[in-house]
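G., the chain you wanted modeled:
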Amino acid sequence: MVGNEGGGLIRGRNLLLATDGKPHSMKAAQYAIELAGLASSRLYMIYVVSGNDEGDKQAAIDMGMKRLDELKSLAAESGVEAITLLEGGNVYESVLSAAERIRAGAIIVGTSGKSTLDRVLMGSVSEHVVRNSRCSVIVIR
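Predicted structure as tokens:
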């Protein structure tokens, strides 16, 4: 999956996986775990409970914690220590803010492959992060 160069430009730098627990983010998680291991990088995983989850905020928090615990276990099985971040607020701002806080060398996000119309109507976390991040962004399809 990841090239055998061991992450070159990100070797030893913090990585941030932005996840929403959906299938497209699972592929990104697997990639991030493998890359963190190869690059000897610290892996942070962020799940954001957004304002859209107001109706059942506790259920959204519980789901986020469950997803992060599952991903942390998956990372541990691969010998990668992961640090989980459960945050609330605007997804775009939270991901970019976390990347700044941890001084990420790269952000890894998954994309669902939505159409242009879907992105216009609903927005796209991966697209926003790519356009506004100060560090490298790896988008996994």
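DSSP finds five helices and five strands in the chain.

Shout if anything looks off.
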